[in-house]
Specification:
The chain has a five-stranded antiparallel beta sheet with strand order 2-1-12-15-14, with no helix packed on it. It has a five-stranded antiparallel beta sheet with strand order 9-8-5-16-13, with no helix packed on it. Strands 3-4 form a two-stranded antiparallel sheet. The radius of gyration is 21 Å and the shape is elongated. The protein is mainly beta and 317 residues long. The protein is built from no helices and 16 strands.
Amino acid sequence: MTGFGYNVLGFGSPTSAGIPPYNIQYLVIAGGAGGGGRQAGGGGAGGYRNSVVGETSGGNSVAESVFVPTVGVSYTVTVGAGGTASSTIIDGNNGTTGNNGSNSVFATITSIGGGGGGADDINHRDGQDGGSGGGSMWKSGGASVAQGTAGQGHNGGVSTADGSGNHPGYTGPGGGGAGQVGQNSTHEHTIGDGGDGLTSSITGASVARAGGGAGGCWSTFGGSMVYGIGGTGGGASSATSHTTPSNATANTGGGGAGGTDTSGTGNSNLGSNGGSGVVILKIPTEFYSGTTSGSPTVTTVGTNKILVFNSSGSYTA
């Protein structure tokens, strides 16, 4: 037998028309962007869309409306890859722009991949627009601000000119984060930090995600350099020696750091990769169908099932 509205006592179909409409709360984070190569801007965080009641969505906007599924319909989940760092050093010296992250999608909700960090090569100084924007290097007429997407993230930071006014300064700016703009690099000793991400308790624990990547540098100043810190939420920090910085944290949508060269020579290093995104769903247990693909992690928190997709899949309502 079935009761009024939905299945009781195990009889009847869990996808029958008798199930009432229900709400799915979601957190959809796109892939973060890669950092630019050498003396470069950090990558922007992936777009951050959040419908959890009482929390904040990207760009410090109010939480979005919950998603109301149609029972029996399969909804695609796409987890965006992190953008790769700059892959080329031009003339054995100057770097190129980092690559944007890929979009993440749940049903009709799309978060935009983060924007790649700009570099020191004259044709690759602009950070890219994205969920959050990448850091932009100075060029004649001033740096262009890479834009974040409204309701998903913030703009990237910018760098100033060097003392001659002909080239970018020695330090790169940070990429934007879900909760904060990327920090500018305004001094030859100080690299811009990545913008902070945002925290959510959708899984039952408060976790920060979608921080921007720190900038990089070219410098002979050695120990006097103030290295950049990735934004809270998975953004990558600057390397503190003549090495490639570590990649942003996977499944956070964090931005990669800009390439850093502290050897005082023409040697150059590339930036680091952005972190992949994540899609998290919060579904009332009484309406949870149990039908998924892509092997999400499923846990129970209070009266809800929590589905964490670290790779693409689907959920059937």
